[in-house]
Prior knowledge:
Layout: H1 4-15, E1 21-22, H2 23-30, H3 34-46, E2 50-54, E3 60-64, H4 76-89, H5 97-111, H6 114-125, H7 142-154, E4 156-163, E5 169-182, E6 185-192, E7 197-202, E8 206-215, H8 226-235, E9 241-247, H9 251-257, E10 264-266, E11 278-284, H10 287-298, E12 303-305, H11 317-338
Antiparallel strand pairs: 1-3, 2-3, 4-5, 4-8, 5-6, 6-7, 9-11, 9-12, 10-11
Helix pairs in contact: 1-3, 4-5, 4-6, 10-11
Amino acid sequence: MNDPTGRALALLSLLQTHRFWSGEELSEKLEVSQRTLRRDVDRLRMLGYQIDASTGTTGGYRLAAGSHLPPLLLDDDEAVVIALGLRSTAATAIDGMGDTSARALAKIEQVLPDRLRRRVTALADNVTQMRWGRPATDPIDPETIALIAQACRDHEQIRFDYRRRDGEEASRLVEPHQLVSAGYRWYLVAWDVRRSDWRTFRVDRLADARLAGVRFDARQIPGGDAGEYVKRSIGQMPQPHEVTAVIALSAEDARAELRWLEVQIEELRGKARKPGHCRLRFRAPEQQWVATLVASAAMMAPLELDPPVEGDGPGSAADVDAVKAHLDTLSTRLTQAVAPTA
Protein backbone atom coordinates (compact mmCIF):
# COMPACT_ATOMS: atom_id res chain seq x y z
CA MET A 1 0.00 0.00 0.00
CA ASN A 2 1.78 3.10 -1.28
CA ASP A 3 -0.77 5.81 -0.39
CA PRO A 4 0.24 7.27 3.02
CA THR A 5 -3.28 8.52 3.79
CA GLY A 6 -4.95 5.24 2.94
CA ARG A 7 -2.28 3.36 4.87
CA ALA A 8 -2.78 5.55 7.94
CA LEU A 9 -6.54 4.94 7.84
CA ALA A 10 -5.98 1.20 7.53
CA LEU A 11 -3.59 1.32 10.49
CA LEU A 12 -6.14 3.29 12.54
CA SER A 13 -8.85 0.76 11.71
CA LEU A 14 -6.67 -2.05 13.03
CA LEU A 15 -5.72 -0.18 16.21
CA GLN A 16 -9.36 0.68 16.97
CA THR A 17 -10.09 -2.98 17.57
CA HIS A 18 -8.47 -2.29 20.99
CA ARG A 19 -6.24 -5.35 20.74
CA PHE A 20 -2.47 -5.27 21.12
CA TRP A 21 -0.63 -5.58 17.80
CA SER A 22 3.00 -6.55 17.42
CA GLY A 23 5.02 -4.50 14.96
CA GLU A 24 5.52 -7.58 12.82
CA GLU A 25 1.75 -8.24 12.60
CA LEU A 26 1.00 -4.67 11.55
CA SER A 27 3.80 -4.65 8.98
CA GLU A 28 2.41 -7.82 7.42
CA LYS A 29 -1.17 -6.53 7.42
CA LEU A 30 -0.18 -3.23 5.79
CA GLU A 31 2.57 -4.74 3.63
CA VAL A 32 5.14 -2.15 4.73
CA SER A 33 8.49 -2.16 6.49
CA GLN A 34 8.92 -1.59 10.23
CA ARG A 35 10.44 1.83 9.45
CA THR A 36 7.39 2.86 7.39
CA LEU A 37 5.11 1.56 10.14
CA ARG A 38 6.82 3.77 12.71
CA ARG A 39 6.36 6.81 10.44
CA ASP A 40 2.65 6.01 10.04
CA VAL A 41 2.28 5.67 13.80
CA ASP A 42 3.93 9.07 14.26
CA ARG A 43 1.55 10.53 11.67
CA LEU A 44 -1.46 9.33 13.66
CA ARG A 45 0.02 10.73 16.86
CA MET A 46 0.33 14.14 15.19
CA LEU A 47 -3.41 13.91 14.41
CA GLY A 48 -4.22 13.45 18.11
CA TYR A 49 -4.30 9.68 18.52
CA GLN A 50 -2.56 8.42 21.65
CA ILE A 51 -0.70 5.26 20.62
CA ASP A 52 1.30 3.35 23.22
CA ALA A 53 4.39 1.51 21.98
CA SER A 54 6.63 -1.03 23.68
CA THR A 55 9.96 -2.39 22.51
CA GLY A 56 11.62 -5.77 22.64
CA THR A 57 10.59 -9.21 21.43
CA THR A 58 7.11 -8.79 22.92
CA GLY A 59 6.77 -5.15 21.87
CA GLY A 60 4.06 -3.63 19.75
CA TYR A 61 1.33 -0.98 19.54
CA ARG A 62 -1.99 -0.26 21.20
CA LEU A 63 -4.44 2.65 20.81
CA ALA A 64 -4.85 4.33 24.21
CA ALA A 65 -7.16 7.01 25.56
CA GLY A 66 -5.92 10.49 24.70
CA SER A 67 -6.40 13.94 26.18
CA HIS A 68 -9.10 14.78 23.63
CA LEU A 69 -11.40 12.91 21.27
CA PRO A 70 -9.77 12.39 17.86
CA PRO A 71 -11.71 11.49 14.69
CA LEU A 72 -13.05 7.94 14.68
CA LEU A 73 -13.14 5.47 11.83
CA LEU A 74 -16.47 3.60 11.68
CA ASP A 75 -17.55 0.74 9.46
CA ASP A 76 -21.01 0.73 7.85
CA ASP A 77 -22.82 -1.18 10.61
CA GLU A 78 -21.23 0.92 13.37
CA ALA A 79 -22.30 4.15 11.67
CA VAL A 80 -25.91 2.93 11.29
CA VAL A 81 -26.11 1.78 14.92
CA ILE A 82 -24.75 5.09 16.24
CA ALA A 83 -27.14 7.12 14.07
CA LEU A 84 -30.13 5.08 15.31
CA GLY A 85 -28.96 5.39 18.90
CA LEU A 86 -28.74 9.17 18.58
CA ARG A 87 -32.26 9.33 17.13
CA SER A 88 -33.51 7.34 20.12
CA THR A 89 -31.59 9.45 22.64
CA ALA A 90 -33.17 12.63 21.28
CA ALA A 91 -36.37 11.68 23.14
CA THR A 92 -34.67 11.05 26.48
CA ALA A 93 -35.57 12.69 29.78
CA ILE A 94 -31.97 13.75 30.42
CA ASP A 95 -31.66 17.53 30.41
CA GLY A 96 -30.02 18.86 27.23
CA MET A 97 -29.40 15.39 25.82
CA GLY A 98 -31.99 15.84 23.07
CA ASP A 99 -30.24 18.89 21.59
CA THR A 100 -26.82 17.27 21.96
CA SER A 101 -28.04 14.11 20.22
CA ALA A 102 -29.59 16.15 17.41
CA ARG A 103 -26.32 18.02 16.79
CA ALA A 104 -24.28 14.81 16.77
CA LEU A 105 -26.82 13.11 14.51
CA ALA A 106 -26.68 15.99 12.03
CA LYS A 107 -22.89 15.66 11.80
CA ILE A 108 -23.06 11.92 11.18
CA GLU A 109 -25.91 12.02 8.67
CA GLN A 110 -24.17 14.78 6.73
CA VAL A 111 -21.31 12.42 5.84
CA LEU A 112 -23.26 9.15 5.60
CA PRO A 113 -23.19 7.56 2.15
CA ASP A 114 -26.61 7.50 0.51
CA ARG A 115 -26.98 3.73 0.95
CA LEU A 116 -26.42 4.02 4.71
CA ARG A 117 -28.67 7.07 5.03
CA ARG A 118 -31.49 5.06 3.44
CA ARG A 119 -30.95 2.24 5.96
CA VAL A 120 -31.08 4.65 8.89
CA THR A 121 -34.19 6.40 7.56
CA ALA A 122 -35.98 3.11 6.87
CA LEU A 123 -35.33 1.80 10.37
CA ALA A 124 -36.17 5.10 12.08
CA ASP A 125 -39.39 5.65 10.10
CA ASN A 126 -40.72 2.14 10.63
CA VAL A 127 -39.87 1.57 14.29
CA THR A 128 -41.89 3.25 17.04
CA GLN A 129 -40.67 3.50 20.61
CA MET A 130 -43.17 3.09 23.43
CA ARG A 131 -42.35 5.23 26.45
CA TRP A 132 -44.49 4.39 29.45
CA GLY A 133 -45.64 7.02 31.88
CA ARG A 134 -45.29 10.75 31.70
CA PRO A 135 -42.07 12.72 31.31
CA ALA A 136 -40.38 13.58 34.58
CA THR A 137 -41.31 16.96 36.02
CA ASP A 138 -37.65 17.79 36.58
CA PRO A 139 -35.23 16.94 33.73
CA ILE A 140 -32.30 14.76 34.74
CA ASP A 141 -28.88 16.38 34.91
CA PRO A 142 -26.55 14.49 32.52
CA GLU A 143 -23.65 15.03 34.94
CA THR A 144 -25.66 13.21 37.62
CA ILE A 145 -26.22 10.23 35.31
CA ALA A 146 -22.53 10.21 34.40
CA LEU A 147 -21.42 10.36 38.04
CA ILE A 148 -23.75 7.51 39.04
CA ALA A 149 -22.64 5.38 36.09
CA GLN A 150 -19.00 5.99 37.04
CA ALA A 151 -19.70 5.01 40.64
CA CYS A 152 -21.48 1.82 39.50
CA ARG A 153 -18.49 0.94 37.33
CA ASP A 154 -15.87 1.71 39.97
CA HIS A 155 -17.87 0.30 42.93
CA GLU A 156 -17.67 3.58 44.85
CA GLN A 157 -20.23 4.80 47.36
CA ILE A 158 -22.17 8.00 46.59
CA ARG A 159 -24.08 10.52 48.69
CA PHE A 160 -27.13 12.48 47.58
CA ASP A 161 -30.25 14.25 48.81
CA TYR A 162 -33.44 12.37 47.91
CA ARG A 163 -37.10 13.46 47.75
CA ARG A 164 -39.55 10.62 48.41
CA ARG A 165 -43.02 10.21 46.88
CA ASP A 166 -44.58 11.85 49.95
CA GLY A 167 -42.31 14.89 49.60
CA GLU A 168 -40.06 14.06 52.55
CA GLU A 169 -36.37 14.75 51.90
CA ALA A 170 -33.39 12.94 53.40
CA SER A 171 -29.68 12.44 52.79
CA ARG A 172 -28.67 8.99 51.51
CA LEU A 173 -25.41 7.04 51.43
CA VAL A 174 -25.58 4.10 49.02
CA GLU A 175 -23.57 1.54 47.12
CA PRO A 176 -24.78 2.03 43.51
CA HIS A 177 -25.03 -1.13 41.41
CA GLN A 178 -27.07 -0.44 38.27
CA LEU A 179 -28.95 2.29 36.39
CA VAL A 180 -32.22 1.24 34.75
CA SER A 181 -34.03 3.20 32.05
CA ALA A 182 -37.80 2.62 32.01
CA GLY A 183 -39.73 4.78 29.59
CA TYR A 184 -39.20 8.40 30.61
CA ARG A 185 -37.85 7.38 34.01
CA TRP A 186 -34.35 6.51 35.18
CA TYR A 187 -33.92 4.39 38.31
CA LEU A 188 -30.90 3.55 40.44
CA VAL A 189 -30.69 0.15 42.10
CA ALA A 190 -28.46 0.51 45.16
CA TRP A 191 -27.66 -0.90 48.56
CA ASP A 192 -28.65 1.65 51.22
CA VAL A 193 -25.74 1.66 53.67
CA ARG A 194 -27.61 3.13 56.64
CA ARG A 195 -30.73 0.98 56.18
CA SER A 196 -28.77 -2.18 55.29
CA ASP A 197 -31.19 -3.06 52.50
CA TRP A 198 -31.75 -2.72 48.76
CA ARG A 199 -33.53 0.38 47.49
CA THR A 200 -34.75 1.75 44.17
CA PHE A 201 -34.29 5.51 43.63
CA ARG A 202 -35.80 7.67 40.89
CA VAL A 203 -32.90 9.66 39.47
CA ASP A 204 -35.02 12.76 38.78
CA ARG A 205 -35.61 13.01 42.56
CA LEU A 206 -31.89 13.00 43.36
CA ALA A 207 -29.99 16.21 44.13
CA ASP A 208 -26.37 17.04 44.89
CA ALA A 209 -25.01 13.59 44.01
CA ARG A 210 -21.32 13.21 44.89
CA LEU A 211 -18.73 10.49 45.27
CA ALA A 212 -18.14 9.40 48.87
CA GLY A 213 -14.59 8.16 48.28
CA VAL A 214 -15.25 4.68 49.73
CA ARG A 215 -14.99 1.53 47.61
CA PHE A 216 -17.23 -1.50 48.14
CA ASP A 217 -17.53 -5.10 47.02
CA ALA A 218 -20.39 -5.64 44.59
CA ARG A 219 -23.40 -7.52 45.94
CA GLN A 220 -25.85 -9.81 44.14
CA ILE A 221 -28.96 -7.85 43.12
CA PRO A 222 -32.09 -9.69 44.34
CA GLY A 223 -33.24 -11.95 41.53
CA GLY A 224 -30.00 -11.26 39.67
CA ASP A 225 -31.53 -8.71 37.27
CA ALA A 226 -31.75 -4.97 37.93
CA GLY A 227 -34.60 -4.42 35.45
CA GLU A 228 -36.78 -7.11 37.05
CA TYR A 229 -35.97 -5.75 40.50
CA VAL A 230 -37.12 -2.26 39.51
CA LYS A 231 -40.28 -3.71 37.97
CA ARG A 232 -41.10 -5.55 41.19
CA SER A 233 -40.32 -2.47 43.29
CA ILE A 234 -42.67 -0.32 41.22
CA GLY A 235 -45.37 -2.98 41.43
CA GLN A 236 -45.12 -3.07 45.24
CA MET A 237 -45.43 0.70 45.68
CA PRO A 238 -48.54 1.72 47.65
CA GLN A 239 -51.42 2.88 45.46
CA PRO A 240 -54.47 4.80 46.68
CA HIS A 241 -56.98 2.40 45.13
CA GLU A 242 -57.17 -1.38 45.20
CA VAL A 243 -59.48 -4.36 44.79
CA THR A 244 -58.87 -8.09 44.91
CA ALA A 245 -60.61 -10.87 43.01
CA VAL A 246 -60.54 -14.66 42.74
CA ILE A 247 -60.03 -15.86 39.17
CA ALA A 248 -60.60 -19.33 37.73
CA LEU A 249 -56.92 -19.88 36.95
CA SER A 250 -54.18 -21.52 38.95
CA ALA A 251 -51.42 -19.19 40.07
CA GLU A 252 -49.08 -20.77 37.52
CA ASP A 253 -51.57 -20.32 34.66
CA ALA A 254 -52.36 -16.77 35.78
CA ARG A 255 -48.68 -15.82 35.63
CA ALA A 256 -48.53 -17.14 32.07
CA GLU A 257 -51.85 -15.71 30.85
CA LEU A 258 -51.57 -12.33 32.61
CA ARG A 259 -47.81 -11.73 32.24
CA TRP A 260 -48.54 -8.51 30.34
CA LEU A 261 -50.86 -7.15 33.06
CA GLU A 262 -49.72 -5.14 36.10
CA VAL A 263 -51.31 -7.34 38.76
CA GLN A 264 -50.15 -9.24 41.85
CA ILE A 265 -50.91 -12.96 41.80
CA GLU A 266 -51.36 -14.74 45.13
CA GLU A 267 -51.96 -18.37 46.08
CA LEU A 268 -55.22 -19.10 47.90
CA ARG A 269 -54.50 -20.44 51.38
CA GLY A 270 -56.43 -21.93 54.27
CA LYS A 271 -60.20 -22.06 53.96
CA ALA A 272 -60.06 -19.90 50.85
CA ARG A 273 -58.02 -22.54 49.02
CA LYS A 274 -59.77 -23.65 45.82
CA PRO A 275 -58.19 -25.88 43.16
CA GLY A 276 -57.58 -24.13 39.85
CA HIS A 277 -58.09 -20.66 41.35
CA CYS A 278 -55.91 -17.85 42.69
CA ARG A 279 -56.29 -14.30 43.96
CA LEU A 280 -55.44 -11.22 41.93
CA ARG A 281 -54.62 -7.87 43.52
CA PHE A 282 -55.29 -4.84 41.32
CA ARG A 283 -53.83 -1.48 42.33
CA ALA A 284 -53.70 1.86 40.52
CA PRO A 285 -53.69 5.64 41.10
CA GLU A 286 -57.34 5.93 39.91
CA GLN A 287 -60.37 3.72 40.42
CA GLN A 288 -61.12 3.69 36.70
CA TRP A 289 -57.64 2.28 36.05
CA VAL A 290 -58.37 -0.49 38.56
CA ALA A 291 -61.59 -1.33 36.72
CA THR A 292 -59.66 -1.47 33.44
CA LEU A 293 -57.23 -3.99 34.94
CA VAL A 294 -60.10 -6.10 36.28
CA ALA A 295 -61.84 -6.10 32.88
CA SER A 296 -58.61 -7.10 31.15
CA ALA A 297 -58.13 -10.06 33.48
CA ALA A 298 -61.77 -11.11 33.04
CA MET A 299 -61.08 -11.52 29.33
CA MET A 300 -58.88 -14.52 30.20
CA ALA A 301 -61.10 -16.33 32.75
CA PRO A 302 -64.15 -15.80 35.00
CA LEU A 303 -63.45 -13.90 38.20
CA GLU A 304 -65.31 -12.62 41.25
CA LEU A 305 -64.50 -9.50 43.24
CA ASP A 306 -63.75 -9.97 46.93
CA PRO A 307 -65.77 -8.11 49.58
CA PRO A 308 -64.32 -4.75 50.66
CA VAL A 309 -62.00 -4.39 53.61
CA GLU A 310 -62.95 -2.28 56.59
CA GLY A 311 -61.94 1.36 56.79
CA ASP A 312 -61.46 3.98 54.10
CA GLY A 313 -58.06 2.92 52.69
CA PRO A 314 -57.23 0.92 49.57
CA GLY A 315 -59.68 -1.96 49.06
CA SER A 316 -62.44 -0.26 51.02
CA ALA A 317 -66.13 -0.20 50.06
CA ALA A 318 -65.51 3.04 48.20
CA ASP A 319 -63.00 1.32 45.91
CA VAL A 320 -65.06 -1.83 45.37
CA ASP A 321 -68.30 0.09 44.69
CA ALA A 322 -66.56 2.48 42.29
CA VAL A 323 -64.92 -0.36 40.37
CA LYS A 324 -68.25 -2.18 40.11
CA ALA A 325 -69.88 0.99 38.78
CA HIS A 326 -67.18 1.38 36.12
CA LEU A 327 -67.57 -2.29 35.15
CA ASP A 328 -71.37 -1.88 34.90
CA THR A 329 -70.85 1.07 32.58
CA LEU A 330 -68.41 -0.94 30.49
CA SER A 331 -70.81 -3.90 30.37
CA THR A 332 -73.63 -1.66 29.12
CA ARG A 333 -71.47 -0.16 26.41
CA LEU A 334 -70.19 -3.55 25.26
CA THR A 335 -73.74 -4.89 25.14
CA GLN A 336 -74.75 -1.96 22.97
CA ALA A 337 -71.70 -2.49 20.75
CA VAL A 338 -72.64 -6.09 19.94
CA ALA A 339 -76.38 -5.56 19.79
CA PRO A 340 -77.88 -6.27 16.32
CA THR A 341 -78.68 -3.16 14.32
CA ALA A 342 -82.25 -2.51 13.28
